[in-house]
Structure formats: structure tokens, C-alpha cells
Specification:
With 204 residues, the chain is mainly alpha-helical. 74% of the residues lie in helices and 0% in strands. The N and C termini lie far apart (66 Å).
Length: 204
């Protein structure tokens, strides 16, 4: 259900394009994004930063598409959004020392620091790749093919990427973090020093 909600603007964009044209579809996508954020605000009284970024990008590039009646802008929109996400992940990690993937998933999994770093890098690489493949499809195929790829192709690639990550992290997924505990790697055996300290004293 959440996946359908996240794809709500893209699904309406696809339907509107098939029924009308790229410009009507763009206007529908802008309105759908406003509705999506309004619903999230109504339910939770807060909106994720990524959703605000998505709104800003669709307003900018969708608006330019409608004003100039040029589909070039809306074709660039997914790539700009993907690359923005990649830049945000990279800057947060390299400059501010904050791993945003860890911030989002840290309550569900216990992972070593190095694994969180690899996850962050993999998402950055994935977003860069998605931005490139979007441009390739947009400028080497018909608008109809690009719109179809925007919904089904992007969703399919995302699904494959997530499944690959789940397979890679399978051994960690059964680990549940107790409430209030720190997110650290779990070891199967306690350290030697801890064993010694907890060993009962021998009777005299």
C-alpha cells in the first residue's frame, strides 16, 4: 500500500499521458504531488524532507514544461531528483559525518559501521545510475517509451536493487534492536574480558 502511495503522482502521470498528452500529464503530476504531501501532513503533521525536495523539483521542471510547452524539462526532472538524492547522501556522509541510510534504517537493523558505509555508497551509486539511465531512455526513445519506463522500468530496477540488498543483509535482518539500546554490531560471543569478569569465583 505504501508503495502505491509513493508512486501516486507517477501513476497518475502515466494514466494522464495515455489519455491526453505530456503537458496534461505534467500538470496532473504537480497536483498529485501537492495532494500527496497534503495527505501526509494531515495524517502525521510532518512531511519528510525528501518529499519537499520532490515537490520543489516537480514544480520547477514541471512548471517550465507547461510555461514553455517543452517536454525537455519534464524529461530531465527524474534525473535531477535522483542526482540530488545522491548528492545529499554523499555530502551528509563526507562533510557532516552523518549516514542518512543509517538514520532511516538504524531502528530496524544492527549493522557494523563498515556495512552502513557500504549501504550508503550503494544507494549513491544507484541514484547516479538511475539518473543516467533516465536520460538515455528519454533522449534515445519515444516519449511514450520514456513515460512507460518512468513507471514500470524505474519501479522494476528499484525492486531488483532492494532485493539484492535484502539478500546481502539477510544475516542481519533477524536482529532486533531493544528499545533504547545503541545501534552497534552484534557479536555472537561476548569478549574474553567480559567472560572473565562474569565468571563466578571458586570456593576457597
Amino acid at each position: 500500500m505504501k508503495l502505491l502511495f509513493d508512486l501516486f503522482p507517477v501513476i497518475l502521470f502515466f494514466v494522464a499521458f495515455k489519455v491526453y498528452d505530456i503537458f496534461v500529464a505534467t500538470a496532473v503530476a504537480i497536483m498529485a504531488t501537492f495532494v500527496q504531501i497534503g495527505w501526509v501532513w494531515y495524517r502525521h503533521r510532518q512531511v519528510d524532507n525528501m518529499m519537499w525536495i520532490s515537490l520543489a523539483v516537480i514544480i520547477l521542471f514541471g512548471g517550465a514544461t507547461l510555461v514553455f510547452q517543452d517536454e525537455l524539462f519534464i524529461k530531465w526532472k527524474p534525473t535531477v531528483l535522483y542526482w540530488l538524492f545522491a548528492i545529499i547522501l554523499w555530502i551528509s556522509s563526507q562533510i557532516f559525518g552523518k549516514n542518512l541510510i543509517h538514520a532511516m534504517l538504524g531502528k530496524q537493523m544492527v549493522l557494523p559501521f563498515s556495512v552502513w558505509q557500504k549501504l550508503n555508497i550503494s544507494w549513491i551509486a544507484f541514484f547516479v545510475f538511475m539518473g543516467c539511465i533516465n536520460l538515455y531512455i528519454a533522449f534515445n526513445f519515444s516519449v511514450d517509451t520514456w513515460v512507460t519506463f518512468k513507471l514500470f522500468g524505474s519501479m522494476g530496477l528499484m525492486l531488483v536493487f532492494v532485493i539484492l540488498q535484502i539478500v546481502m543483509l539477510n544475516r542481519y535482518l533477524s536482529t532486533v534492536i531493544p528499545e533504547g539500546s545503541e545501534n552497534q554490531a552484534v557479536t555472537k560471543n561476548p569478549p574474553l574480558q567480559e567472560k572473565i569478569e562474569n565468571k563466578p569465583d571458586k570456593e576457597d
